[in-house]
Write a structure and sequence with these properties.
Radius of gyration: 17 Å
Strand content: 25-35%
Number of strands: 10
Helix content: 25-40%
Largest sheet: 6 strands, mixed
Number of helices: 7
CATH topology: Rossmann fold
CATH class: Alpha Beta
CATH superfamily: P-loop containing nucleotide triphosphate hydrolases
Structural class: alpha/beta
Shape: globular
CATH architecture: 3-Layer(aba) Sandwich
């Protein structure tokens, strides 16, 4: 099943009065259960593509379909609901709420979805175990290492049980050992849960883990590699 489809996607924006052509006619499809990387150097357009796929930004041209739904046909409220229910995000800066505990950070998206407290507790405890953070639910982000904070971010993305997780440079702030551990967690969850993972990255280790690598340069697809 196709979970993301991009047709001739164009994204332009202005930066300090200069017109930037971030994406120049990108067409891509991702199937359910993929573990894929959109790779390229800084400024290539890879993060822009992820933001568009995650309904965080709007297209200049072309079309983007998420789960068969045309993004352009959805209202802002419908896009927000799609993000909340179907898409999980993992960012290099973790984006945790510092005043909340680990448990509260993870359960926050479920609260927004109006899920009852008993199910929130069950889901949160399960995902803490999956990412290896059992017993750490009462800690605050500042009391944790970078790798532990990224595990919290993964748990927060997973707890909604989304069909798609978009990870924007998830290993950028981690040493190689911790980065590998994080990737192993995500690969295991991909294999067990069937969740689609799509990374933007310039990290060779992420590309080694990915089963499909799409290289973007200057806003266009340069080449693609699918591993057996």
């Amino acid at each position: 099943m196709t979970v993301i489809k991009a047709e001739n996607v164009v994204k332009d924006y202005s930066l300090n009065g200069i017109e930037v052509h971030a994406l120049r006619g990108v067409s891509l499809e991702f199937q359910g259960g993929e573990f894929a990387a959109v790779a390229g150097p800084s400024g290539s357009g890879k993060s822009t593509f992820l933001h568009l796929a995650g309904c965080l930004d709007t297209l200049t041209g072309g079309a983007m379909y998420i789960g068969g739904q045309d993004m352009a046909a959805l209202s802002r409220k419908q896009l927000a609901l799609l993000r909340r229910s179907s898409i999980g995000f993992i960012f290099q800066a973790y984006n945790l709420i510092p005043v909340l505990s680990v448990t509260e950070n993870i359960s926050f998206p479920l609260t927004l979805l109006g899920i009852d407290k008993k199910e929130i507790k069950e889901r949160t405890e399960k995902v803490l175990l999956e990412v290896g953070l059992e017993g750490m639910g009462n800690r605050k982000p500042k009391e944790m290492s970078g790798g532990q904070q990224q595990r919290v971010a993964i748990a927060r993305a997973l707890v909604k049980r989304p069909s798609i997780i978009l990870a924007d440079e998830p290993t950028a702030n981690l040493d190689s050992k911790t980065g590998r551990e994080i990737l192993e967690i995500m690969l295991r969850l991909n294999q067990i849960e069937g969740t689609t993972f799509i990374f933007s990255t310039h990290d060779n280790m992420v590309m080694d883990f990915a089963r499909r690598v799409i290289l973007i340069r200057d806003g266009q697809i340069e080449k693609e590699q699918v591993k057996s």
